[in-house]
């Protein structure tokens, strides 16, 4: 009798298979679900998705550009330098009917992109899986979010398993703080967190999420600290910046390789200085990298040592995607221009918004209550 051929599931133990899958880039896992029922079950497990986000050896960094409410384009930043075969991917928005007004990208968190439409709707969207959660919001304080918000940020509260939008408003002589919960689809007043005068108007409006907190940088040239709002404790604090950076001019705040980072351009030197806090809230861990390029705008770190930069697509009239990366170990700067243009009209650039995020298979807390819309699953 002919012996039955053994499958990989019969040869390797389950824990080893799982460890191997955790090393695979998330955009390939969708195909691997088809290998067997066992693999489909492993990859579909919410615990696996959570582990892959935090333990993956090859996280997939993506940048999503939005022209209007019907056109979105995705760039896998890690692949942008892999030869001439790279293509910009077009996505479909997670709704069928074209909205009355424009949607804007408001940030990203754990693989989810936050969109907002004035004055009523928030949309949380995972472009990889196609999941979306469209909610009608009622902030209560103000009808128009973008026009009246002093600060805002999108983040995740692990203690409550809830995604939140934090918004600070100015009302007459007082400042107010609201928190919109996607889990309860309701708005919570957090005015008690504003007992101390924080000078909220001194910070850039859009915050970035890291380590359970939303962070804002200074909106002026007087850079002394980052403003931090802890989503679990519902309290504000500050993180001091390196002394060498203070009083040197405006900086831009980004997240690089899971670390806080700020960069500024020095026109006389024609260089870009990037300060990275390698250990969270450890002031002595601020590390300086000097990039021999004036207009270098970092977006993410790839392969542990390559800082990737993408020039804004608002450059008229070329409309080319211009990439650059700087290897901090070898001190090597490489440039690359993608000749493929995005299909944007010459007079539509002011409508474009974008965000950088790490792709994930995570499920939204309300996933069981909403239908999973599979619109362009990019895998």
Spans where pLDDT lies below 50 across 5 or more residues: 313-319, 343-351, 368-379
Largest sheet strand order: 3-2-1-24
What's the CATH C level of the largest domain? Answer: Mainly Beta
What percent of the residues sit in helical stretches (DSSP H or I)? 10-25%
CATH architecture of the largest domain: 6 Propeller
Number of helices: 6
Shape: globular
| Intertermini distance | 41 Å
- The CATH topology assignment of the largest domain is Neuraminidase
- Strand runs, count: 24
- Average predicted confidence as pLDDT: 79
Protein structure class: mainly beta
**CATH H level, superfamily name of the largest domain:** TolB, C-terminal domain
State the order of secondary-structure elements, H for helix, E for strand. Answer: HHHHHEEEEEEEHEEEEEEEEEEEEEEEEE
- The domain tally reads 2
Query: Strand fraction band?
Result: 35-45%
Describe the main β-sheet briefly.
4 strands, antiparallel
Supply Rg: 22 Å
Secondary-structure blueprint of this entry?
Blueprint: H1 8-11, H2 14-22, H3 26-32, H4 37-44, H5 46-55, E1 61-68, E2 71-76, E3 89-91, E4 103-109, E5 112-117, E6 121-125, E7 132-136, H6 145-148, E8 149-157, E9 162-171, E10 174-181, E11 186-189, E12 208-210, E13 213-216, E14 225-230, E15 235-240, E16 252-256, E17 259-266, E18 271-277, E19 286-291, E20 298-302, E21 306-310, E22 320-327, E23 332-341, E24 353-358
Antiparallel strand pairs: 1-2, 1-24, 2-3, 4-5, 5-6, 6-7, 8-9, 9-10, 10-11, 12-13, 13-14, 14-15, 16-17, 17-18, 18-19, 20-21, 21-22, 22-23
């Amino acid at each position: 009798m002919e012996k039955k051929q053994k499958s990989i599931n019969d040869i390797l133990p389950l824990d080893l298979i799982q460890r191997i899958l955790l090393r695979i880039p998330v955009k390939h896992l969708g195909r691997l679900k088809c290998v067997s029922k066992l693999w489909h079950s492993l990859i579909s497990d919410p615990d696996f998705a959570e582990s892959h986000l935090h333990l993956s050896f090859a996280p997939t960094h993506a940048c999503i550009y939005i022209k209007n409410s019907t056109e979105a384009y995705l760039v896998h930043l890690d692949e942008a330098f892999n030869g001439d075969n790279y293509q910009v991917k077009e996505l479909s928005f997670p709704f069928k009917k074209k909205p009355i007004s424009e949607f804007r990208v408001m940030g990203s968190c754990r693989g989810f992109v936050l969109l907002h439409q004035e004055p009523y709707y928030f949309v949380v969207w995972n472009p990889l899986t196609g999941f979306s959660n469209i909610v009608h919001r009622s902030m209560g304080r103000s009808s128009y979010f973008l026009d009246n918000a002093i600060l805002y940020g999108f983040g995740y509260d692990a203690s409550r398993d809830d995604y939140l939008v934090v918004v600070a408003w100015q009302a007459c002589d007082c400042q107010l703080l609201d928190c919109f919960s996607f889990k309860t689809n309701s708005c919570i007043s957090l005015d008690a967190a504003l007992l101390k005068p924080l000078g909220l108007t001194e910070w850039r409006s859009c915050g970035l999420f890291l380590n359970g907190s939303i962070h804002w940088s200074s909106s002026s040239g007087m850079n002394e600290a980052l403003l931090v709002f802890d989503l679990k404790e519902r309290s504000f604090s500050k993180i001091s910046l390196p002394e060498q950076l203070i009083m040197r001019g405006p900086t831009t705040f980004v997240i690089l390789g899971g670390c806080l980072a700020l960069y500024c351009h020095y026109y006389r030197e024609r260089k870009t200085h990037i300060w990275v806090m390698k250990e969270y809230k450890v002031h002595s861990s601020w590390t300086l990298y000097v990039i021999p390029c004036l207009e270098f705008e970092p977006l993410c770190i790839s392969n542990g040592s390559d800082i990737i930069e993408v020039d804004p697509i608002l450059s008229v009239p070329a409309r080319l995607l211009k990439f650059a990366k700087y290897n901090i170990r070898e001190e090597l700067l490489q440039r690359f221009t993608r000749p493929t243009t995005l299909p944007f009209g010459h007079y539509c650039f002011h409508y474009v918004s974008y965000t950088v995020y790490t792709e994930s298979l995570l499920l939204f807390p309300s996933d069981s209550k909403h239908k999973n819309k599979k619109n362009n699953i990019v895998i």
